[in-house]
Design goal:
Elements lengths: L9 H7 L1 E4 L3 E7 L6 E5 L8 H21 L6 E7 L8 H17 L3
Parallel strand pairs: 3-4
Antiparallel strand pairs: 1-2, 2-4
Helix pairs in contact: 2-3
């Protein structure tokens, strides 16, 4: 099963979801009963000028989310969009995983 959020659902997450701001990324979440356990990533050219840096940030966020889903630490019935911040560029996958775990803990403490 793929953990990638289809492009058509990004707008829905941004319109109806809530944001959680972290040091390395901003996470938008949308929880509802028929949501899949999926995530999308956004990396802007304004923040990351070089394509190499943009691609690295995307890979880090996708891999961190994939590993958290595999370990069963990602919330069920929640769709995510992660937006990279500049601070992510010199971090490792474990750092991004820790940030996502923190975001997930904020998610469960603030259910609607």
């Amino acid at each position: 099963m793929s953990t990638r959020l289809p492009g058509a659902k990004y707008k829905q997450v941004f319109d109806r979801g809530r944001s959680i701001k972290g040091r390395l990324l901003v996470a938008w979440r949308l929880s509802h009963s028929d949501a899949d356990q999926m995530a999308g990533v956004v990396v802007s050219k304004k923040t990351f000028h070089d394509a190499v840096d943009r691609n690295r940030a995307k890979r880090l966020m996708r891999e961190a989310y994939r590993l958290l889903v595999k370990e069963g630490l990602a919330p069920l019935e929640t769709e995510w969009v992660f937006i990279a911040r500049r601070a992510i560029i010199d971090k490792h996958c474990a750092d991004v995983m820790d940030e996502m775990k923190w975001v997930f803990s904020r998610n469960t403490s603030r259910q609607r």
